[in-house]
Amino acid sequence: MGVVLGGMGIAHTPTMGHAYDGREGIDFKDRWKQWFKGLAPVKQWISEIAPTHIIVVYNDHLNYFDFSTYPTFAIGMSDHFPQADEGWGKRAYPGMDGDVDFSASVAESLVANGFDLTFCQELEIDHGIYSWLPCLIDHPWPVKFLPIAVNMVMQPVPTPARLLALGSALRSSVVDTADDSRVLIVATGGMSHQITGRRFGLTNPKFDQFFLSKITHEWDELISIPMSRIMQVAGTEAGELAMWYAMRGALSGSVREVYSFHIRPEITGCGVIAIEESNDK
Fold this sequence. Notes:
Helix content: 25-40%
Shape: globular
CATH superfamily: LigB-like
CATH class: Alpha Beta
CATH architecture: 3-Layer(aba) Sandwich
Strand content: 15-25%
């Protein structure tokens, strides 16, 4: 039987990765130093709880899937997930190793709970995961990964209630596994930002901080807010925050907030929250 250790929600952005790497020609690294410093307690927490597996709910940015075929929920079923080249060349980090037996067990449980999945024997991972991963875990990565890609690009996208249900089903799937896996559930999606149209560059730090303050113990208040309203006040790409409900849905009611942090280093709000199960240690 597996155990869920806790959950983490974190923003992602390609700029985060470039700034962390000190990519040649980018002159805004200093603006990101406070963000990287703010992530240090989360890195320490992950090291302390020592997960054997990380399930990551994220969205692909048309780097593996495209508009010709875009599944609502896609699950990685491979022993290795290479890094995607997003047009700047691959960053200097290894691919992520998976655990096929663990993935198969989770997938079987999810299907039994009513989730129709696209099974991916091959899956390349973009900045939805790679932008923050090296900031929080040293490589070679000491854990196995199970990526679950969610459609946040092509309408209709899954509802907040559906993503919350996905989280609950993920918790059941971990408990149903035959091994002694220690699992961290991660959801990653951009906080306030808009990268298209006349509102390009819009952010709303006040909303980001409100979201972080509610997700642990008052998530029901958040989920009652229509995503169209969140996109109106926080930018169209803030709709990715719906994926954070999957992380919270995978946790019990007996949790404690370990740490949260927020900053606006560029044209997007960046936040992180670490939530730990009180009894599952």
